[in-house]
Amino acid sequence: MRRLWEHFGDLGAAWAAPADALQRAGLDRRVAAAAVAERPSLTPDAERDALEQAGVDLITLADSSYPVLLRRGEGGPACLHLRGALVPEDEMAVAVVGSRMITSYGRQATLQFVGDLVRQGLTIVSGLARGIDAVAHRAALEAGGRTIAVLGCGVDVAYPPEHRGLAAEIAAHGAVLSEFPLGAKPDAPNFPMRNNIIAGLSLGTLVIEAGTSSGSLITAARALDWNREVFAVPGSIYAPRCQGTNRLISKGEAKSVSTVDEIMAELNLGLVPQQLAMDGLLAHDHTEGTLLAHLGSEPLHVDALTRLTSLPVSVVTSTLTMLELRGLVRQVSAMQFVRAR
Questions:
Q1: Do 330 and 324 meet the contact criterion of CB atoms below 8 Å apart?
Q2: Interatomic CA distance for residues 110 and 102, integer angstroms
Q3: Which residues, in sequence order, are bridge partners of residue 79?
Q4: Could you give the percent of the chain with pLDDT greater than 70?
Q5: Contact at 8 Å (CB) between 200 and 76?
Q6: Burial of 38 (0-12, 13-18, 19+ CB in 10 A)
Q7: Which residue of 71, 169, 245, 252 has the fewest C-beta atoms within 10 A of its own C-beta?
Q8: CB–CB of 328/340 below 8 Å?
């Protein structure tokens, strides 16, 4: 999908392209042939109507609303189905994951960390599973914060069934996301893909209670693949549900943490609430705010910003010049810009 987007500049043009044009875009011959063969059985307009009827938005890599953190790498899915809304503040997010079989220790740790993270202005990302995930989502909502649930099924499918109400509440105060189409069942192979998105959406991943075979360890591994930080709450050496977290720490794959201050310091986020407030004050107009929302610590070329924002290149370059003069962005190489935090 990335190759198609970059080659054609428009996904609609890619949809209508013949097989040889798809091959020139970088697709394997068999993939290109299969795409053309399947095309007559697919109706984009019908899919769009179904999404509208379900109240679900579809975000693609070509959209400026595609999550900034998920775009900074090759692991982001081509499409995301969305219930609720994503906002620029969600760029400041931490994933909180752990065992489905939660203990009183795990519950207490989750409530403490999530409450403190929300009070620092961070969005909480998790997977809506039983146990740690559900407690993390509820704790974020109760603290008045934002939370994002990433599913291993369609966003219109209630899984687990008892979390239907929680999913609706999250959609009303955050976002429910999935790369899977409407009606997709929660099949086992979907969940590692779900965990990849959880990690990709987050600046860091916090693991609270995980056994040696916990799916949370997959999320931690994906976070490392994204070059993001991994944190773990240490537990008793006698507790089976802490063996996975303790092993992450002992292998040096996760940093042991006991307070949110340690996470904030490691992520260099000591002034998140002030930074979020200043963004609105420092952006003199909508154009500046849009560019600031897309820039982060990873360099972005002017051409990429032009494509992401749908702004004329002349507007992007002149606005970046003004932002650079005010010390809000930095040019790190030819036409490559980062946010000056």
A1: yes
A2: 10
A3: 60
A4: 95
A5: yes
A6: exposed
A7: 252
A8: yes
Residue with tokens 């360099």: 299
Extract the tokens encoding 63: 């959209």
Mind listing the domains of the chain with CATH numbers? Answer: 1-42 (no CATH), 88-266 (3.40.50.450), 283-339 (1.10.10.10)
Torsion of CA 32, 33, 37, 43, to 10 degrees: 10
Q: Which residues of 264-286 are buried (b: 16+ CB within 10 A; e: fewer)?
A: beebebeebeeeeeebeeebeee
* Interatomic CA distance for residues 252 and 313, integer angstroms: 44
Nearest in space to 233 (alpha carbons), one of 223, 248, 215? 248
State if pTM tops 0.90. no
CB within 8 A of 296, min separation 6: which ones? 68, 69, 72, 91, 338, 339
Chain Cα centroid distance, residue 245: 22
The residues facing 232 across adjacent strands are 207, 256
